[in-house]
Amino acid sequence: MIRLEGVTRFYGERAVVDDVSLVVEKGEMAVVVGRSGSGKSTLLRMINRLVEPTSGLISIDGRDVSTVPAHVLRRGIGYVIQGHGLFPHRTVADNIATVPRLLGWPRDRIARRVSELLELLQLSPARFSGQYPHQLSGGEQQRVGVARALAAGPDIVLMDEPFGALDPIIRSKAQDDLKAIQARLGATIVLVTHDMDEAFRLGDRIAVMEAGRVLQYGTPRDMIARPADPRVAELTGSGEGALRLLALVRAGDAAEPFDASTPPPSHSVPAGASLREALASLLWTGEGELAVTGDDGRPVGRVTLASVLRHGRSP
Amino acid sequence: MKVSVGTIARLVGAILLAAFLVRPEAFAPLFAPLTSNGAPPIYRQGNLLALAWSHFQIVVFATLASTLVAVSLGVLVTRRSGAEFLPLSRAVVNVGQTFPPVAVLALTVPLVGFGDGPTFIALFAYGLLPIFENTLVGIQQVPAAVTEAARGCGMTPAQRLFRVELPLALPQIMTGTRLAVVVAIGTATIGSTVAAKGLGEVIIAGLLSDNTAFIVQGGLVVALMAALIYDAMLAAERSIILRLGLPANERE
Question: Which of A153, A279, B21, B119 has the fewest CB within 10 Å, making it most exposed?
C-alpha cells in the first residue's frame, strides 16, 4: 500500500505538486492522468525518491520512504519510463538482469529469472537474450523495459507514460498485456499518462491532476457519474461519458441467457470485448442483438441493443 | 573475405616500416640520391629500432597520463557537485594546448634537467585538451532516459558512472586519445633538442650536417608510425562501437 499525505514539491516559487494526499491499495492499478506540466510525473518520481518532496509524507506499507537509502528503495520498486531507457551497450538479457545483479543474486537464479520474464512478455529467450536494444522494434523495446522493471519481483511498479512511444495498434495490445501481467503478479502499479482513454482502460482508480493538484481520485465509474469538478468533467469528456461507461463493462458480464423460443443471433462478440465494442458491432450490422462467445468460440449468452443502452444510461 | 585497398596499403606500410627499422642499410640506394659529397645516406649514429621504440614509449606514457588526468577532470565536471569546476578545468587544458611545446621544453629543462622528462611534460600538457573535450561530449551525450533508468533501477552514483556513463562515453574518449597520440608522435621529435631519445635525433642530425637523406628518413618513419597507429586505434574504436551496439557515428 502506498500512502501520500500532503505531498508538496516546489521548484523555485512554483508548487509543481501541491498538497496531494492519496492511497493506492495493494494490488491495485492507480492511473494518474493529466496534461503535460500538471505535475503527474513529479508526483510519481517522488514515490521512488527520484525527486524529494518539499513537504509531506510518502510511505509504503507503513514505512516512510525517506528513511530508506534512495538506491536501496529503488531496487525494490520497478520503474518503467517513456522511451524505455534501455542500456544501449547491454544485451536484452543483461538489461533485464540489472536489478537482480545489483541485489547480488546468484548467476543461475538470474538466468532463470531472465528467461521466465522473456516468456512472460512473449519474447522468445533464444531469439532475444543476446540482442541489443537497437536491434528491437519499439514494441519489443517497451516489453524489455517492463521485464527489466519486474525482474526482481517488486511489489510496486511505477510507470511513466510507458506506452507513449508506441503506435496506437501496438499500444492497445501492450495495455491488455499489462493488465494480464498485473492480474497474474498482483503487483501494485502506479501509472502516469496524459491519455484519458488509457486511464479508463487500465485504472482501478484514476487520479486527475491539474496544476499540481489532484482534482479527483476515484474509480472510473465515479469519475463519469460524479465528477467532483467541472474540469474533471471536461477532461473525461462529458459528451463521451456513456461510451466510457460502456467501455468499462465486459460483454461476458452483461450477457443474458439465450431464450430458446427465438432463433440465435447471426453475429457475435467475444466475452472479453467491452459493451462499447458490442454497440459498435450492433450499429454496424444493423442487428438488434449479438451472441456472446466464450474463449472456445461457443456462444455463452447474448446482448441486446436495449441492454447495451441501459448500461450506458447516466447513473 | 574482401580485402580492401586500404588494408593492403596498411599492410605494405607496416612491412616497409618494420623492414626499414630492422635493416636500414638495405634502403641505402633509395636515399643515396638525397646526399652529396659522399655523406652517409642512412643514419648510423644510433640504432633506429631503439630510437623508434623509445619515441613510441614516451608518446604512450605521456598520452596515458593525459588520458588519466583529462578523463578524471571530465568526470569531475560532469558531476553535479563538480560542475562549478568546468570553466577552471577548461582554462587549464586550454593553456596546455596553446602553450607551444617548444616553450614547455625550454621552461622545464631547468626544473627536471635534460632527457625524457621535459618531452614527457610537453606531450602530457598537449594531449589534455582533445581528451578532456571528448570525454565531456561523450558523457553529456548519454541519453537522459538512460541515466534516468540507471537511477530508477537503484544504481549508486559510482555504479552509474562505471556501468553506464563511462562505457557509453568510451568510443568518444578513444577518439580524443587517438587525436592526442597522433599529434604527440609528431611533436615528440622536438624532444630530441633536449636530449630525449627519439626519432627527432635523426632529423636534427640531418639539419646539423645538411644531410637531406636523414631528414627525409626521420620524417618518413615518424609519419608512417603516426598513420599506422591512427588506423589501428580507429579500428579499435569502430569495433567497440559495433560491439556496444551503438549507432555508428559519422566520422572521417
Answer: A153
